[in-house]
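To start, one record:
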Amino acid sequence: MNPESDKQTPYNPPDAPSWRKPFGMILMLVLILLWCGIVVTMMDWISGLNFWLQLPIYIFAGIIWIFPIKPLLFWMNTGKFRS
């Protein structure tokens, strides 16, 4: 045995795959599709507004979907919803 092989860390096999990531991805897609459906059903009402009233609504609709996704991503990686 040479001294270099003594310094190497032992091989640890990877953990078994978790069901959280595939389930989380499906749930994420469902949430995004649900949010898109809500915004699309409001299109008739939004399109009747002035441009300057439409702008904050579209900005809000484009950003707000991230907030329910953040805890879902955290859960997918750690198994907990909060740190």
